């Protein structure tokens, strides 16, 4: 009994291309979890640097506190209220807040573009569109601007 082995052989360039594609997909699927090994990553802050606040801003102009209505969850779009106070603890009205963040160890940003959509009473503002796509160390940074000045505050969150 004789088999035609030529019919089952793929040209060398197709085998190489297929192998390269398999390697690329495999690396791509696991890159997020291992990017910090390639890029050097970021050093995780001390445990005391984590939490919802109150957290002083970089230049100490403001204090910010995240006030989620329930514990922050993975893979859920959420609205997260934040209270902004001045250095004396008085609520600050009329601030502009830009929201950014990401996973420093993985080298990527937030999967959404959260933004402040409305101001509530007592210096509380609603940030809509917050989503954390996977477990780990996340940073949520608020760039705050008011007549008192521009400053920023970063929350380290472990989800």
Note down, in words, how this protein is organized.
It is a single chain. It contains one helix and nine strands; from the N terminus they run H-E-E-E-E-E-E-E-E-E. It starts with 11 loop residues before the first helix and ends with a strand. Strand 8 (137-146) and strand 9 form a beta hairpin. A five-stranded antiparallel sheet has the order 1-2-3-7-6, with no helix packed on it. A four-stranded antiparallel sheet has the order 5-4-8-9, with no helix packed on it. It has a single domain (47-158), classed as Immunoglobulins (Immunoglobulin-like, Sandwich), CATH 2.60.40.10. 18% of the residues lie in helices and 36% in strands. By secondary structure, it is of the alpha+beta class.
Output the keywords.
single chain, about 160 residues, alpha+beta, Immunoglobulin-like, five-stranded antiparallel beta sheet, four-stranded antiparallel beta sheet, 1 helix, 9 strands, about 35% strand, globular
Reconstruct the topology from this structure.
Blueprint: H1 12-39, E1 55-56, E2 62-66, E3 78-86, E4 96-103, E5 108-109, E6 115-119, E7 124-130, E8 137-146, E9 149-158
Antiparallel strand pairs: 1-2, 2-3, 3-7, 4-5, 4-8, 6-7, 8-9
